[in-house]
User: Which sequence fits this backbone?
């Protein structure tokens, strides 16, 4: 594979490095990398892979650019709000480097399509933000014998590793079981320092380049922990679990499963209960307008309460709920809300289990209420 004079000039700072040179750059040009998730992590990963000259980059995401993305997802700009992420990212990458190919997968990755998509790539980058997809990508890459470059972020903390069955442990060796649903909040619920995805995403991109070129010591069997608040890095050694159900000596998982069910995200009984114990923003508005005597409980954190609140609500942060049960008036209909409805769903389940059965969750939280009912409430 030859290089044009324009490419030689573009990649000159690579070519003069003995560890890379023409051969290493040729490997980059021939490589195919799939980035799953074009968000906080996927933005820096894809930008650096494109600028480095990775020949084919696949972008998989089904979401649209939202204004809240712009605080950390550096591949997008304000005029991009409302557009498909994969299309915006493709345009940006090709403007950055017209010598590469960018393929888009405007879809959600599932057990039905994962193997067909992933088998066309050499390396997969996990830039996602949910446990079902992480376990799905892990199992798919193990079955296809592909390396998985992992990253995760939350508030000030990040993680990075390379899971490569046959050469080291997989994600299940580190986390055999997912946490209970709702226990680990998402970035939308807990926040993330805007520059942290850039730090972790750059680490992921570095691992991809090392794997392609065949240099250095990849993070196989090592978990790198990043603390941006103290700007410190720690490393944990990970061993392959011989009893791992997917990469162990006697694997029991030989095909992809239902990962939402595995992670407890969806069970029919819980879904029915959640619907029965829920009010919509419009239903809440009718209750307020009718003058019905209700009690609104806000289980967000005080810092969120300062941003916005529904008039008449009482702040009872989720972590303080059990110690402040006496402040909940069960003679009234109690409606609990948080930012998007996840924490409040947990709160309602907890309260109902304790016998406070006149308690309901506001579907979609204050964010949905601001969108559907009261546009004067700031959204974040």
Assistant:
């Amino acid at each position: 594979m030859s290089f044009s004079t324009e490419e030689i000039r573009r990649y000159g700072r690579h070519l003069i490095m003995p560890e890379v040179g023409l051969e290493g750059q040729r490997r980059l040009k021939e490589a195919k990398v799939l980035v799953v998730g074009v968000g906080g992590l996927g933005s820096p990963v894809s930008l650096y892979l494109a600028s480095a000259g990775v020949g084919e980059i696949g972008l998989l995401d089904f979401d649209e650019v939202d204004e809240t993305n712009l605080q950390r997802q550096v591949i997008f700009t304000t005029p991009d709000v409302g557009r498909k992420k994969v299309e915006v990212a493709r345009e940006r990458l090709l403007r950055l480097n017209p010598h590469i190919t960018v393929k888009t997968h405007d879809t959600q990755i599932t057990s039905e399509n994962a193997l067909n998509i992933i088998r066309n790539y050499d390396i997969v980058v996990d830039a996602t933000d949910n446990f079902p997809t992480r376990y799905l990508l892990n199992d798919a890459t193990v079955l296809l014998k592909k390396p998985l470059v992992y990253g995760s972020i939350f508030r000030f903390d990040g993680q990075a590793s390379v899971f490569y069955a046959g050469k080291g442990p997989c994600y299940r060796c580190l986390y055999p079981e997912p946490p209970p649903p709702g226990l680990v909040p998402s970035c939308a619920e807990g926040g993330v320092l805007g520059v942290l995805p850039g730090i972790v995403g750059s680490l992921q991109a570095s691992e991809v380049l090392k794997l392609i070129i065949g240099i250095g010591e990849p993070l196989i069997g090592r978990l790198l922990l990043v603390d941006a608040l103290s700007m410190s890095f720690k490393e944990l050694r990970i061993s392959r679990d011989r009893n791992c159900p997917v990469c162990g000596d006697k694997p029991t998982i030989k095909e992809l499963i239902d990962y939402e069910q595995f992670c407890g995200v969806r069970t029919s009984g819980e879904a029915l209960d959640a619907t029965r114990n829920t009010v919509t923003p419009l239903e809440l508005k009718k209750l307020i307008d009718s003058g019905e005597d209700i009690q609104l409980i806000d289980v967000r954190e005080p810092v969120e309460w300062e941003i916005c609140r529904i008039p008449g609500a009482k702040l009872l942060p989720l972590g303080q709920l059990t110690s402040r049960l006496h402040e909940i008036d069960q003679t009234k209909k109690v409606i609990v809300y948080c930012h998007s409805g996840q924490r409040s769903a947990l709160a309602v389940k907890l309260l109902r289990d304790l016998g406070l059965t006149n308690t309901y969750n506001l579907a979609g939280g204050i964010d949905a209420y601001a969108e559907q009912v009261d546009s004067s409430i700031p959204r974040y």
User: Anything to note?
Assistant: The chain has two domains: 31-262, 268-372.
